[in-house]
Design a protein that fits this description.
The chain has 536 residues and is of the alpha+beta class. The protein is built from 19 helices and 21 strands.
Length: 536
Amino acid sequence: MNLDYLNYPYASQRMATFAKNGMVATSQPLAAQAGLDILKKGGNAIDAAIATAATLTVVEPTSNGIGGDAFALVWVKGELYGLNASGPAPKSISIDAVKAKGHDGMPTFGLLPVTVPGVPSAWAELSRRFGKLPLTEVLEPAIKYAEEGFPLSPVLAKYWKGAHKKYKAIFTAPEYKGWFDTFAPEGRAPEIGEVWSSKGHANTLRSIAETNAESFYKGELADKIDAFFKEHGGFLSKEDLADYKPEWVQPISVNYRGYDVWEIPPNGQGIIALMALNILNGFDLMEKESVETYHKQIEAMKLAFSDGKKYVTDPEKMSVAAAQLLSEEYAAQRRGLIGDEALTPEPGTPPSGGTVYLATADGEGNMVSFIQSNYMGFGSGIVIPGTGIALQNRGHDFSMDPAHENALEPGKKTYHTIIPGFLTKDGDAVGPFGVMGGYMQPQGHAQVIMNTIDFHLNPQAALDSPRWQWIEDKKVLVEPTFPTHVAQALARRGHQIQVALDGGGFGRGQIIWRDPKTGVLAGGTEARTDGGIASW
């Protein structure tokens, strides 16, 4: 790949990181180091990914937890494997049952939006199929940080404090007590540099490690989750947990200018990034800071999102297949809608027929693109007392309209925002990439891929480059470093441009590219968070 390694447009002016034997890139330096330690102990990229992911539940609980979901793309011996570890709605829930509790829409927080967690199953399944070291050894760094504590980093402390301020005002019901006992034991959020620990979290991780996650789904931890939901009138049960299994899935891709861009298929929203790239494939976009380039990027993303929000749900419930949405015929149809002015997007008719991200690579050529999340920061606000298990609120994305593709149903998986990405060329791995952050994720994926392929930016520069984010209709947010003259020109085309001073909404990404000839790894980490790369 012909990348300009002297090009660094972002204010941080950091260069890409290079290594030969192994690399871990993620949003918390302590977690990256934990993954590297496992590599040095003889583990492979899969072991390192699990160790990093488990440590992130401790050192970045503002974005993920043991009670969240996960997805992974794993490159092993020349093959790419996909793991969908997202959980379904409880079998006892329904639209009528939620309405009977007084809700017209799915609540954002609390017991009702909690779906079956997939994170522990992802760790166990990845370890079983591809790991070299026992899970007890791989999870040891996370257990140690939970037991002994760690000092908060700046961005982490910012989001922790913001969450506590918000939750203190709205979490007044008794089921939320576990959150405050766990994450605000002194009656406040911990400060920058202050040491926080969670013995319950450590014990839970140890139990998961010793039982290969069986205790979470069929044992003592499942019993505790079941008892809590029964006590407080929730729907999640031990039966839901016991019946859950993660799924190995076939990754989906589009060829973008000679490179294959890979995503997990629905219920994830990675297909939106692929649809947008498929539309953009028909344009000649060679100048990065061009009004025409940005305009077409935004318009393509709007069209892809409108389709994604209409059609993406549990794959067994989708009325349109992924192949139809990614067909050349449909891309050409959608591309034809893009003119000189900003449009208000509508879904088309295809032809019939709060998250953490990490990337790892080892010296043997194995690579992992892994993402896990509780959603909206800490998730549902429900923490099982004494366990450190903070549960996700993925069910919030279900529609209460029975006619909607993503309508709430018992045992159904919802539209999912978290997506890992992977890049290959001519059958060889280029490497893992990802940009976490809700609905910014497919937008970040498309921008990072274009920065890499179209504009030849190195991994760090591709991440540091100023981002835009389409919100709805014609509204587009841009970062303060976004070129002012381009923003003004986009406004003249009908885009409603707003400068966002808080960069947290523009995603936080990681990249590791591998040179197929030399095996040298080149990594980039996010300047918008406490990101770090550990390598050797």
